Amino acid sequence: MTARKPNPDAAAAHERLFPGHVSTLAVTDPELIAYFDDFAFDEVLRHTGVLPERTRLMTQLAAMIAVGAVAEYRVMLGAALTTGVTPVEAKEIVYQAVPYAGMARVFDFLHATNDVLTERGVPLPLEAQSTTTPDTRGTEGLDMQKRIVGADAVDTMHAGAPADQQHIQHFLSANCFGDHYTRGGIDVPTRELLTLAMLAALGGADAQVRGHVAANLNVGNDRAQLVAVLTGLLPFIGYPRTLNALAAVNAGTTSCPQEDA
Fold it and tell me: Is position 87 within any domain?
């Protein structure tokens, strides 16, 4: 029996993203790759149209960092750069992952990103994107945190933290938000989409996913965008983590088509 091949639309999308690239798995595991390509590069893409392609690719890169998929990340980073994601944006995705996935995991992706950029002739280091200083990161981070999370919610977290954990609240404001969210290169709404993608992909972060569904809405992202992001992640992070994140979207948005029907 002749092995199944990806359908023409999937094959065309794959060639546009990865021009001239032939997966070794397409040779050793042609049936699986045909199923996957039809799903990831045709069927899924029909339901992510509210997102620009570059934004979808950026959120997929963020999720690949969270799940530790270095090899797939390298290939997808090439596709992202080919379709218009800038070197600065690529680096900022990696930097944004540090407070969520941790430097131990992000370390290898930083090197992978540097390798891919160097192979493409991009000189490093890139232009600096930090907008805060050691003296301002705390106050500017707190302001950014309140903008994204909500002032009342942030005040409640600070007030409710035990005395021996107040420093963690300071870290969240100064480090997570002051060092990272205040950076240039990617706007805040896009950073929130990246964060949602990372948290969904990590698994075991259901409370944080719920919090960042609300944060996405606070910065102007809507339900359709969140559903599209998670739809685009599905082929790469699987059904359980995607469905858990979608449950958070359904709980956090007031317009749920299934409930309205």
Answer: no
Q: In this structure, is residue 232 part of a structural domain?
A: no
pLDDT attached to residue 27: 86
pLDDT at residue 75, as a whole number: 95
pLDDT digits (tens, 9 = 90+) for 191-215: 999 999 999 999 999 999 999 999 9
> Taking the C-alpha atoms of 237, 226, 132 and 168 in order, what is their torsion angle to the nearest 10 degrees?
-70
- Cβ 161 vs Cβ 170: under 8 Å: no
Whether residue 135 lies inside any domain: the answer is yes
**Model pLDDT for residues 16-69, shown as the tens digit of each residue:** 999 888 788 888 999 999 999 999 999 999 999 999 999 999 999 999 999 999
Q: Tell me the C-alpha distance between 242 and 118, whole Å.
A: 33
Query: In the chain, which ranges are continuous DSSP H helix?
Result: 8-17, 24-28, 30-38, 53-67, 70-82, 87-101, 103-119, 137-149, 151-160, 166-171, 188-202, 206-218, 223-237, 239-252, 257-260
CA distances from 237 to 9, 70, 256, 260 (A): 23, 14, 23, 28
More confident residue, 142 or 256: 142
Range of the domain at 175: 130-182
Does 200 fall in a domain?
A: no
Whole-number Å distance between alpha carbons of 47 and 226: 12
Q: Which two tokens stand for residue 189?
A: 């709404």
User: Rounded distance, CA 132 to CA 179, Å?
Assistant: 7
Nearest to 4 by CA among 40, 28, 34, 24: 34
**What count of other Cβ atoms lies within 10 Å of the Cβ of residue 34?**
18
Site of tokens 């290939």: 75
Number of domains the chain is built from: 1
CA distance 229 to 66: 15
